[in-house]
Write a structure and sequence with these properties.
heterodimer, A: 532 residues, 2 domains, B: 232 residues, alpha+beta, OB fold (Dihydrolipoamide Acetyltransferase, E2P), 7-stranded mixed beta sheet, 12 strands, elongated
Chain lengths: 532, 232
Amino acid sequence: MKTKRLLVLALLLACCLLMTGCHGSDGSAAFAIPQQFDTNRQFEVSFWAKNDTNKTQTAIYEKAIADFEALYPNIKINLRLYTDYGRIYNDVITNIATNTTPNVCITYPDHIATYLTGNNVVATLDELFTDARYGLGGSELRFDSPKVDEVVPQFLQECMIGSHYYALPFMRSTEALYINKTMVEKLGYTVPDVVTWDFVWEVSDAAMAKGPDGNYLVNGQKVLIPFIYKSTDNMMIQMLKQLDAPYSTANGEVLIFNDITKEILYTIRDHVQNGAFSTFKISSYPGNFLNAGQCIFAVDSTAGATWMGTNAPHMDISADQVAEFELVIRTIPQFDTGNQKMISQGPSVCVFNKEDPQQVLASWLFTQYLLTNEVQISYSQTEGYVPVTLKAQQDAVYQDYLSRKGEDNDMYYSIKLDASELLMAHTGDTFVTPVFNGSASLRDAAGQLIEEVAKSVRRKKTVDEAFMTSLYAQINSLYRLDQIGSQQGSIDTKADLGPLPGTAVTLLCALGTVWVLIGLYVLRRALKAKKH
Amino acid sequence: MKKILAFVLVLLMLAACAVAEDAQPVMTHAEYVAADLESEVTIETYVQDKQGWWNDQAIIYCQSEDGAYFLYNMPISKEDYDKLVPGTKIRVNGYKSEWAGEVEIVDATFEIIEGEAFIAEPTDATAALGKSYLVAHQNELVVLKGLTVKDYGDGNPFAYKDPAGKTDDIYIKFEKDGVEYEFVVEYYLRNNETEVYKAVEALQIGDVVDVEGFLYWYNGANMHITGVAKAE
């Protein structure tokens, strides 16, 4: 009898352990801010970042690290540079499985949403933002950090996934329309303040006229692609947004396969057909064609402004290929000039959760350091980026920088400063797409729709209703968009639940106990029946 | 019974003929060069080298006796990728495309076919440098002799794409007969543990060298370097 009681007790205990173990069994424990940062211990913080093949950006990272390490001699930052966000993303995913993620990583919220499918992989920053000692503008910091309300609200909001902050914005850009004004005017048009899609298509079509020698009349060359778009993901996303057309819901329901998308694709088809439009993936960098006088409208990031124009500081074609022309910059083409919409993009920084809260705190301190005025201003000056803090934007050093537009074709290159000013003037017109596990795939799919149409037209395939039906099915399957809906909830449930409440544990244990007792009763009855 | 069997065999033969007619004829290199951009092409060639496998795709350098091909981001499993050792004969079907002057085969599929291995010897294309006909050697394994290392900027003989980690490409400029060329050590073709990566790191401005590699094109000749040696 005594053995039976022990057996029951043991079963109950095992049951309770199993029940509690069901929740949060993998990944690190949720991060809790330590009372005090331990300055007597040495920490190594791995920082995975991206540079735009720009030596100055690398130098700025290195200087920021050196300056930070001077302030915190017990923290060593190990920088690993990538030239592609996709590779950072892939490496992080690979390292989640082995619990060897970096400590700090430059990334996009879309990517973080995927990281969050692991338990507590990424540290939530809500409490760190507002912690009086180590939070933004905290009293214990050894540097002048911005307060929460000194971060541009739109940019900060972009780092909220579900109901928590998982990143800090680092730099922001948008896309811009770089226009060869000389050629537009040669075709008899005037560049308006706000350019419409209709205008771009009309001028592009007009530019396709050729002379008897087979050269294009507008540039006298054999090569001309009047309109080239760098990121077709952005092209589709922004066109849909401007038309107030469905893309996805906030919860990850995919809505992109609709009739408005199809209409956009038919328009693109028509302009690929007559050679007026192409993409980066098909033809190469818009800036190279623009600079060679072989493109009139180039849409690329404001962060690529230093590659645009006859006098651009960066050039990817030889000097003898560069054409002389007047370059102007505008917001991307719009459907409604009175209600402009453009994407907000640019890197953010996330902190990975670790077993040791002190390690996470050390990582957070460095992450926050990236928002100091010196880092923000110097990095933003490398390209047409905009600092993500109002504190940096309003700083006298930054204001002086803006005021010196056009002083040279390097630091003060006018197109680069125009690009930064464009975003600052239109921050209120920017938007981001909903972030969920799978949103990165949906973004890729949006661009691929355009790429496939363009490619197919060039390959002389018929792009009609049957093609569209097949394309939708193919893209849906290729990017597994049909599986996104079933994955939803994983971010919020896995990342947000934390430990089970005591009452739930008690209830589950009680349920388990009842089942064990029922089992024992049935077993006892069966044994008795066998004896008789 | 015999009649039925014969009828079935005839049907099978007709079906086989129809399939064969659907398959693209294998082109010579000259036919490939003459083919329109964005047209479907089928070639037989030999693997010469490859960049790292990533994301279920790879970049493959191929060459036959009559010319070279560049297979861009060809979908391939890791298992098949490992089979593509230098010399392997493959039949490739895809679309001829051009990106920044580089003529390549995209959206390709391939199959390994029986055949004796072929590994190209580098062609000396030095005489074609600066001439319009250099492009005829596009994608071939070539050697360019007597090139002088130029200042890449700020007094450096080359530039790392990733100066901090040195885990990416190296860019380097050479000059020959007054014309400047920018070449690259592609990290995914020759990483920082290879002889050529280290040899390029050791170069100084003014060094005169012979450079070997695949004659890739990016708005002009942009060799993917596989070997470098002091000029004879």
